[in-house]
Write a structure and sequence with these properties.
- The structure is a single chain.
- The protein has about 400 residues and is α/β, with parallel strands linked by helices.
- The chain has twelve helices and 23 strands.
- Helix content is about 35%, strand content about 25%.
- Strands 1-2-7-8-9-10-11 form a seven-stranded mixed β-sheet. The protein has a six-stranded mixed β-sheet with strand order 12-13-14-15-16-17, with no helix packed on it.
- A hairpin with a 2-residue loop joins strand 12 and strand 13 (about 135-140).
- Helix 5 packs across helix 9 and helix 10 runs parallel beside helix 11.
- The protein is elongated, with a radius of gyration of 24 Å.
């Protein structure tokens, strides 16, 4: 079932309301997702991207209901990752000679994944494809946003930027367009997507946003590969990206921890209370990593100016849940944020110091000595935790 985007441009993708995990199990998709594919019917018929492999048969069937497959003049692959290219092998069985326009790196990606020698036409920034009726597709390399093979495609005349993963969200909405979506869900899922996937590439993104702006192209619609199509003030998401990639932070402190027998949890609650006592204007959020989705916690970390990590000491180290989260945090390469650590212990108490060392290597500025508490916190220990929180607020 197609949906008209503008004039002779149609959405022919797949809504996936059941998806709950992505990138293996590395990214949570509480709101499902969509795999957005687009069909352009000018003098030439162009398909832009496909959908994930589980939907290959229904995708090809639906596409054949929209257009004679043999009339497709070219396929544009903006990015070779399987959620965008997974249906390509099934489609190419039926139209094996159709040219595929993509970057040189995408040729590596597609041949490495599918082991087929298709009719590749490699493109670079500024190359174009005449599609008739005075319109062209102009290609813009988007290297490392978020794979080396990524690109975007701009359609002149209709002023549509097919942006692939940039500006998207994992959000299954049948309404398709941004102005018809739940705005709270849309904003959160866009931020979550950026925080958990694109943050490591902030430097690339800054340069690419500047490059796109310098092209001075009129952009009336941003057609992403996941989530909504931005048709109402589409540059609003570009402006958000410009803010998010500039060492973004809000007036927020996020405390995350895991605990064995609730001692570290007690410290977390008292640290939070101390922060609020010292600065009632700051937003403080507290999460138990064992009971909260890691991508949701990371979204809050991304928003924060200060994070506070907690773990009891187990076998001279932190709990595995905390170690895994800190490893993920280091991968995201956030900058301009502060940190502190805390935890209970029975015998040796190395966890807070080891967390602090890890956070420092991850680029965080430590603002206080690690808070360590022997055994279960009593009244004095709770007051020490509150004082720790008050110092963090001032820092």
């Amino acid at each position: 079932m197609h949906k008209k985007i503008r004039n002779n441009v149609y959405w022919v993708g797949q809504i996936d309301t059941e998806l709950r995990q992505f990138h293996g199990s590395d990214y949570s998709t509480h709101k499902g997702s969509s795999y957005n594919s687009y069909l352009v019917k000018e003098e030439k018929t162009i398909l832009i991207d496909t959908v994930w492999k589980p939907y290959a048969d229904i995708f090809v069937k639906n596409l054949a209901g929209e257009v004679d497959l043999n009339s497709i003049d070219a396929i544009v692959v903006n990015h070779g990752e399987v959620d965008h290219s997974g249906s390509l092998p099934r489609l190419m069985e039926l139209i094996p000679d159709v040219p595929i326009y993509c970057t040189a790196k995408a040729v590596d990606s597609l041949t490495g994944q599918y082991h087929q020698k298709w009719n590749f036409h490699t493109v670079k920034t500024g190359d174009s494809l005449d599609i008739g009726n005075g319109k062209k597709l102009v290609f813009v390399e988007m290297t490392m946003l978020h794979w080396p093979d990524s690109m975007a495609t701009y359609m002149t005349g209709d002023n549509i930027l097919f942006s692939n993963d940039a500006f998207g969200q994992h959000y299954a909405t049948s309404t398709l367009f941004n102005d018809l979506a739940d705005q709270c869900v849309l904003e959160y899922e866009a931020l979550k997507y950026f925080a958990n996937i694109l943050t490591p590439f902030n430097a690339f993104l800054k340069r690419k946003l500047a490059e796109i702006i310098a092209l001075n192209l009129p952009i009336d619609i941003i057609a992403t590969s996941h989530g909504v199509v931005w048709r109402d003030n589409p540059m609003q998401i570009v402006e958000k990206y410009a803010a998010w990639c500039d060492d973004y932070q809000e007036n927020q402190v996020t405390i995350f921890y895991d605990t064995m027998w609730d001692g570290t949890r007690t410290l977390a609650d008292n640290i939070a209370a101390g922060i609020v006592e010292a600065d009632p204007t700051v937003t403080v959020k507290v999460y138990n990593l064992a009971k909260t989705d890691k991508n949701d916690v990371m979204t809050e970390v991304f928003k924060s100016k200060l994070i506070v990590a907690g773990s009891p000491t187990v076998v001279n180290d932190m709990l595995g849940s905390v170690a895994g989260f800190l490893h993920f945090l280091k991968e995201l390469k956030m900058k301009g944020k502060k940190a502190a650590t805390f935890g209970c212990y029975g015998w040796t108490g190395e966890a807070p110091k080891k967390m602090a060392e890890y956070l420092e290597k991850a680029g965080f500025s430590l603002v206080d000595e690690p808070l360590r508490n022997n055994w279960n916190p009593d009244g004095d220990a709770c007051e020490s935790a509150r004082e720790f929180g008050r110092r963090l607020a001032k820092a």
